[in-house]
Request: fold
Amino acid sequence: MHLPPCPALPMTYLIRPMTPQDLPACLELWCDTEGVVLREESDSPEALTRFLARNPGLSFVAMDQGAMVGSILCGHDGRRAQLYHLAVRSEQRRTRCATALLEAALQALAAEGITRCNAYIRVRNLAARGFWSSAGATLRRDIDVMTLAVGTRPAGRSGIS
Reply:
């Protein structure tokens, strides 16, 4: 997919599906992007390769003259989608690159019949909050997210009763 430039902006990006070969550049971008948090167990090259294989054609990279300048990691469980690690190189920000990546992911999700997605952002990441709000996302105030490591038992439980 090749997106035309925005009339007021000179940038044109080639948006294409992310492949395992893109992961080293993606990891470098994510490490360099303030507000992106990487986890050893889920953001290793092996874990990300599994994620891409399970969710083919849903994650994208933005290329500018052969260099990766942005990416979005996207997957779904058949019901809801999750968006992770939307990142754009600082010098390419405010050129609609993030919007182009988001649109590519949303189009791919719609093609699979997914109607809702969640984006995970750090609570204090005001720039990300601004972007997601401008993209039409709403902040959920009716739920909290709780995380449980797989393979552990809840505290105070010795087994299944």
Observations:
- The chain has four helices and five strands.
